[in-house]
DNA sequence: CCAAAAGTGTTCGATATACACCCATGC
DNA sequence: GCATGGGTGTATATCGAACACTTTTGG
């Protein structure tokens, strides 16, 4: 056998999107400790090597559970990152030695995209620090995590065009048309007129107006709506053809 | 370090689509030898373990070159297959031992989709047998290769909706509207009326009518067209919105 | 009363859909 | 002459695009 064939470690990394109250997309980052000095922390994407009896989808579900305490999150595998140099900076090598074991030659990672209501309580059983970070304020991250995040954003754009209903994974159960509009605008390339958006939304039977309206807002209060996934599945619509 | 973390071999497998003269999609299969008896051959997808200094995209390009002799083929990574039991049948274990080395515990594969004009000469530097197989006649394959092919078909469906121009990777340089229509129909879920298809196609400036027409056909000869990729890039159209 | 966002209708043009007949050719 | 597929036009319906004003509420 050629010694050239790679014997590698395989990991999963998860990009979890949330939508905050300033109408911005956020991503969940955790922190790794670089040195023995506690203050030397650096943000990174949550991830883990996979176990020997685990499929990658299962490993991603495990990482998401360890991260948030949520058992079944929506997730989507989107790309394998295998650049031979993706984990070759001195800091990254040092961290891998401590976290896993010394002399790991190479790690290939499978990246996942996941969605989370930003109000959901984050109950990590593994990480001390789990923080939402607005996507326009992502710091420099280790490995190729910045690249993974950039590609995950392209992926969520494609996703929303294929399956419009993913927006409801990011919104609260009760939401206003305004929130829906701004979330769609934050993700999609397609820009849509506000009035036409309203018209479109009200034509969907699976977006159901509630009797409740906003309170304590410094403008006319908006109506809340809820999403009915069963009706959606029957309707099989896209926002725009 | 937990002994549970997997140290795995990583491979790429390529699903190469072609479009034949009976208007059917085909896939390139190679053969592996199971025993020392030369006749014991079994079809499989072309693939290879990746080298230690290779990115997965590079490995897929290498596999495609070894398969066809073509240097730069269109390719698209579409999914990582990592079921712990995907390579656990006795035949598969026996074959891996012979092809690579004994006691390979697990192989994770990254699957690629590629496209090839079926008239292109196949010049394999590695495989003795390289055959086009119609997708409705794919035999039972080793590993999870049948599953990979099924998912690759879903992927090419999505692909053609995102980027209509991939059909021209499958058609000859000169093609008739009929070929284009039947290829599109073979891939896409969307069914389109023949006359409306004609109308649509002739509205595209990047599909250019040639002076040449079919000869020796038992019906009115169809005009040949060619595809101009530069004009296409400017136009940025989809077949259907 | 002012700021801020909610909510609402109509017109126009483009595009998808549906549909049926005659034409050219080889055999 | 006949079988096979090539090639064409029109009418209708739907959908997306563009566009501005009044309403409600809190401060």
Layout of helices and strands:
The structure is a homodimer of 241-residue chains.
Chain A: E1 7-19, E2 25-33, E3 41-44, E4 47-49, H1 56-68, E5 75-81, H2 90-99, E6 107-115, E7 130-134, H3 145-162, H4 167-170, E8 175-176, H5 177-187, H6 194-203, E9 207-213, E10 223-227, H7 229-235
Parallel strand pairs in A: 1-6
Antiparallel strand pairs in A: 1-2, 1-4, 2-3, 2-7, 5-6, 8-10, 9-10
Chain B binds a DNA duplex (27 and 27 nucleotides) through residues 176-178, 192-196, 198-200, 214, 216-223, 240-241.
Give the CA-based shape of chain A.
elongated
- Main sheet characteristics of chain A: 7 strands, mixed
Structural class of chain A: alpha+beta
Percent of residues of chain A in helical segments? 25-40%
Total number of domains of chain A: 2
Oligomer: homodimer
Q: Class of the largest domain in chain A, according to the CATH hierarchy?
A: Alpha Beta
| Architecture (CATH level 2) name of the largest domain in chain A | Alpha-Beta Complex
**Overall strand count of chain A:** 10
Most extensive interface between two protein chains, with residue counts: A-B, 34 and 34 residues
Quickly count the helices of chain A: 7
Q: What's the average pLDDT of chain A?
A: 93
Please indicate the percent range of residues of chain A in DSSP E strands (runs of 2 or more): 25-35%
Distance between the termini of chain A: 52 Å
Rg on CA atoms of chain A, Å = 20 Å
Order of helices and strands of chain A: EEEEHEHEEHHEHHEEH
In CATH, the homologous superfamily of the largest domain in chain A goes by the name Nucleoside Triphosphate Pyrophosphohydrolase
At CATH level 3, the topology of the largest domain in chain A is Nucleoside Triphosphate Pyrophosphohydrolase
| Unreliably modeled segments of chain A | none
Pfam families (chains A, B): NUDIX, WHD_NrtR
Domain NrtR DNA-binding winged helix (chains A, B): 167-227
Organism (chains A, B): Cloacibacterium rupense
Domain Nudix hydrolase (chains A, B): 11-146
């Amino acid at each position: 056998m050629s010694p050239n064939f790679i014997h590698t470690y395989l990991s999963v990394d998860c990009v979890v999107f949330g939508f905050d109250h300033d109408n911005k997309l956020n991503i969940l980052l955790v922190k790794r400790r670089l040195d023995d000095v506690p203050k030397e922390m650096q943000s990174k994407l949550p991830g883990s090597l996979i176990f020997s009896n685990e499929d990658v989808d299962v490993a991603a579900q495990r990482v998401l559970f360890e991260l948030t305490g949520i058992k079944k999150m929506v997730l989507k595998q989107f790309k394998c990152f295998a650049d031979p140099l993706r984990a070759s900076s001195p800091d990254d090598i040092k961290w891998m030695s401590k976290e896993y074991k010394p002399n790991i030659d190479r790690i290939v990672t499978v990246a996942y995209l996941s969605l989370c209501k930003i109000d959901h309580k984050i109950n990590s059983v593994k990480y001390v620090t789990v923080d939402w970070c607005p996507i326009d304020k992502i710091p420099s991250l280790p490995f190729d995590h910045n690249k993974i995040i950039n590609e995950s954003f392209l992926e969520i754009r494609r996703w929303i065009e294929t399956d419009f209903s993913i927006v409801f994974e990011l919104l609260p159960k009760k939401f206003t048309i305004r929130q829906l509009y701004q979330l769609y605008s934050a993700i999609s390339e397609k820009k849509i007129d506000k009035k036409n958006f309203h018209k479109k939304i009200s034509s969907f039977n699976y977006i159901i107006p509630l009797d409740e309206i906003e309170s304590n807002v410094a403008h006319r209060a908006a109506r809340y709506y809820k999403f009915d996934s069963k009706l959606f599945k029957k309707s099989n619509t896209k926002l725009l053809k």
